[in-house]
Amino acid sequence: MQNRKDELIESLIAYLLENGLADLSLRPLAAGTGTSARLLIYHFGSKEDLLTEVLEAMQAHVRRSFAQLLEKPSTARSSKPPLKLLWNWAIADENYLYLKLLYELQILAIQNPDTYAQYLGRNTDNWLDLALTALSPSLRTPAMATLCAAVFDGLFIELMSSGDRKRTTQALDCFIQMATETLASLSKA
Amino acid sequence: MQNRKDELIESLIAYLLENGLADLSLRPLAAGTGTSARLLIYHFGSKEDLLTEVLEAMQAHVRRSFAQLLEKPSTARSSKPPLKLLWNWAIADENYLYLKLLYELQILAIQNPDTYAQYLGRNTDNWLDLALTALSPSLRTPAMATLCAAVFDGLFIELMSSGDRKRTTQALDCFIQMATETLASLSKA
DNA sequence: CGTTTCATGTAACGTTCGTTACATGCAAAA
DNA sequence: TTTTGCATGTAACGAACGTTACATGAAACG
Asked: Residue B145: closest CA among chain A residues belongs to which residue?
């Protein structure tokens, strides 16, 4: 029954959000989600297919949450710069662990593409680029888009290791201020 | 004999540079370095101790290479901004794979600290901060230091996933230009 | 020369891995 | 009521894991 499987997927995502992807094995995973390795294989066919379904569901969750951000009335978000909006969305409690897991997946895929790259959804490598261009169509040069994405990535990773939301958010504000000033002086000239 | 061990460490580092840390196991590691699992345990005592020694040697290599950069006569480097200097050092062939491995270790330590955090040298979490302040003592606010480190981290990770040295380097130049202009306008006021 | 010490090979240990065989309960269908 | 099919438990498979026991060659030392 698809119903049972969907329940399982929810539990499995919750487990992954807490325990990460590296060194994952079926029996602890099953024990941590109140089922058995036998049942996981029964429902998903193999560990590989399980990860395919669960990680796709996880990424769909992220896409859905991001779509909600885009659908908010623009009056609620036009006051803040797009990068700031994206940052606030990313560090919100309901998104933070998901993004943390997504980042772990992407980084594992860099060193072990044979094992992990298959789990990356079609557009996850550049979802950040897509997000930025969706929020800020004025960002036209690839270098600037790459820079903004890198600032976001770098600060999010720093947040993950240090847990210091205050300092990382200040650093982002710092960047936004620099970018705003640069843009202003460019339009003056 | 320490001699034999040092030879082994060199081979083991080479293996890790190519194959990464995740899903590492003794027998493939031994086969890939021309020895046997038996010998690795004999020389290092355990897999954990082996990783401790090998990863410490790897990080020592990075520190040594970075020290060389600092020791260059300042005439050879004063013309370029510190962040650019650091970037060129990091993407140089003799350093790139080492930093890639170091980044993988740091990110594994985020999600699985029990397994991987022990391999992080005393100061590796903030070696980048140290590097930046060593190269650019004018960077005084923690927010700006965090931002510069994040730009470096983010662009390096983007380089690792895309392999696009040109675009990532352009993005860094973009950031440096913004920072230079901001600094100039601040000193004017 | 004999002894000791280091380095290595072979084989196995016990555990965990992903996976499967087989039996069974249980609910819906006939 | 009987049958069918999904969901689950128990137990095990073969492979790989980190590690160890034991034997042995080679080399240094007395």
From this structure: A171
